[in-house]
Design goal:
Layout lengths: L1 E10 L4 E9 L2 E6 L8 E5 L4 E4 L1 E6 L4 E2 L2 E2 L6 H8 L2 E8 L6 H12 L6 E7 L11 H6 L4 E5 L10 H14 L2 E5 L3 H13 L6 H5 L3 H18 L3 E3 L5 H12 L4 E5 L1 H5 L2 H4 L16 H13 L4 E2 L14 E3 L2 E3 L24 H11 L5 H15 L17 E11 L18 E11 L2 E5 L2 E2 L19
Parallel strand pairs: 1-4, 1-5, 6-9, 9-10, 10-11, 11-12, 12-13, 13-14, 14-15
Antiparallel strand pairs: 1-2, 2-3, 5-18, 7-8, 16-17, 18-19, 19-20, 20-21
The structure holds dihydropyrimidine-2,4(1H,3H)-dione and zinc ion (2 copies).
The site of one zinc ion has 3 residues, from loops.
């Protein structure tokens, strides 16, 4: 099957130009002016539209058990929401639930089952260092997993001590695995949380107040310092505080291969949102911060200190006692109401995988802060490069997977839960006026979204084996 997309404006990180793009089967076959029309090709007129590589969201949690419930998008519903928002590749995290990484990975593959609807990969969480764990790292690479995540918070659950983080980074660095860091100060969080609960401070805003930004700032520098001593590359996830960006910039100025992402919630919301009556909707870890933090994050995206905009998609219902209709069926999944009297019981996480591109386009490109090329770099090309997917994903080169967006830069949408396809009962961007939206979405040459219509299906997504980490930038 061939598709010829004519007269669109192709956007890469380096340039924008009007051309035709021929898809043959699953791949981009040709890019050029006035390409001949093959007899068997479907022709799409994209005049006035942009052609972008499908988004790559390297930070998602689907079907993640937490606090006695589970995040409300699974590997079908979350993938479908991703597709409607223009994202065609997602990376999820394997929980280290078994003594071997191999068994943990097998369990996560089983969790996806046949549900995947876009292409996907996994990072491996390393939350326990068993005697065999480091020796298993080469096996991860052989399974196509070239990144691991470690935590400096969640004492007695997910956290490794600094010595173990150093050992993991050193082993990972030698093998070409990129270490991801969740940077907060677990010890301080434990003290402040216990004190808040003991004094009856149980409202959502105390989630942020018990996780101060200074803990994150210090943990970024600590992570960079451990990575330097381990001679390993580092990628700091969900950066949220101005001081974190400053520490990353300092480490980079020393020539260290350290990089970072932020997520839309940290660009658009603050601790004040947690003080609303429905503040639980904004509870995620690390928490949303302040206006000056937002500004420094924007600056970091613009000056190259941060390379990636991801989401940390991990939705829960606001009121999971009430079903919503999903594909015509009522579905209720316990959510934020579990913590109505105690912020420590509110499941942590927000919807975002489908919101990322349209919301960011309006506020980054539409506002004039960034070019469409910057947008493509931050949302598709850079994440693909850092995570061993490039140029198969995140690019418009001949030979790349034909994961493509026909993007209408003029389409206006009043956004919200009714519009987004995430399986939850609320949306953080309710009522926001957006301009710019994906009109058609292609996954490996197959049109899976056509405006409001879902043309995709469960099982069409493929696990992509990723290459080793090669190049910091
Ligand atoms: N943070 C969240 O808020 N949810 C899931 C995992 C994470 O890091
Ligand atoms: Zn994290
Ligand atoms: Zn996360």
């Amino acid at each position: 099957m061939k598709t010829l997309i004519q007269n669109g404006t192709l956007v890469t990180p380096a340039e924008m130009f009007t051309a035709d793009l021929l898809v043959d089967g699953e791949r981009i076959a040709l890019v050029g002016k006035n390409l001949p029309v093959p007899a068997d090709a479907l022709v799409v007129n994209a005049a006035g539209k942009l052609i972008l590589p499908g988004g790559v969201d390297v930070h998602c949690h689907f079907d993640l058990p937490m606090f006695g419930t589970v995040s409300s998008d699974d590997h079908y519903t979350g993938h479908k929401a991703a597709a409607f928002g223009g994202t065609t590749t997602v990376i999820d995290f394997v929980s280290q639930d078994h003594p071997t990484l191999e068994a943990s990975l097998a369990a996560w593959h089983a969790r996806v089952g046949g549900k995947a609807a876009v292409d996907y990969s996994f990072h491996m969480n390393i939350t326990h260092l068993y005697p065999s764990t480091l020796a298993e790292l080469p096996g991860l690479l052989a399974e196509g997993i070239s990144s691991i995540k470690v935590f400096t918070a969640y004492n007695n659950r997910l956290r490794l001590d600094d010595g173990d983080i150093f050992r993991v980074m050193r082993a990972a660095g030698k093998l070409g695995l990129l270490t991801l860091l969740h940077a907060e100060n677990g010890d301080v969080i434990e003290v402040l949380t216990a004190e808040a609960l003991a004094s009856g401070r149980t409202a959502p805003e105390w989630h942020a107040r018990t996780r101060p930004a200074w803990g994150a700032v210090e943990a970024v520098l600590r992570g960079a310092s451990l990575a330097a001593q381990a001679e390993a590359p580092l990628y700091v996830v969900h950066m949220n505080a101005a001081g974190e960006v400053d520490q990353l910039a300092y480490a980079r100025s020393q020539g260290l291969p350290v990089m970072g992402e932020t997520c839309p919630q940290y660009l658009f919301f603050t601790e004040q949102d947690l003080q609303r009556a429905d503040g639980a909707k904004w509870i995620c870890s690390p928490p949303v911060r302040s206006r000056p933090d937002q500004e420094r994050l924007w600056e970091g995206l613009l000056d190259g200190t941060l390379q990636v905009l991801a989401t940390d998609h991990c939705p829960f219902y606001y009121d999971g006692s009430k079903p919503i209709l999903y594909e015509g069926q009522p579905v209720a999944i316990p959510g934020k109401e579990l913590g109505k009297d105690d912020f420590t019981r509110i499941p942590n996480g927000l919807p975002g995988v489908g919101d990322r591109l349209p919301v960011f386009w309006t506020h980054a490109v539409g506002s004039g802060r960034m070019t469409p090329m910057d947008f493509v770099a931050l949302t598709a090309a850079n994440p693909a490069r850092l995570f061993g997917l490039y140029p198969r994903k995140g690019s418009l080169q001949p030979g790349a997977d034909a994961d493509l967006l026909v993007w209408d830069p003029d389409k206006k949408v009043t956004y919200g839960v009714a519009h987004s396809q995430q399986r939850t009962d609320y949306n953080l961007y309710e009522g926001w006026e957006l301009t710019g939206y994906p009109e058609q979405v292609y996954l490996r040459g197959k049109r899976i979204v056509d405006n409001e219509r879902w043309l995709g299906e469960r099982g069409q997504g493929r696990f992509i084996k990723r290459d080793a980490f090669t190049e910091a930038f």
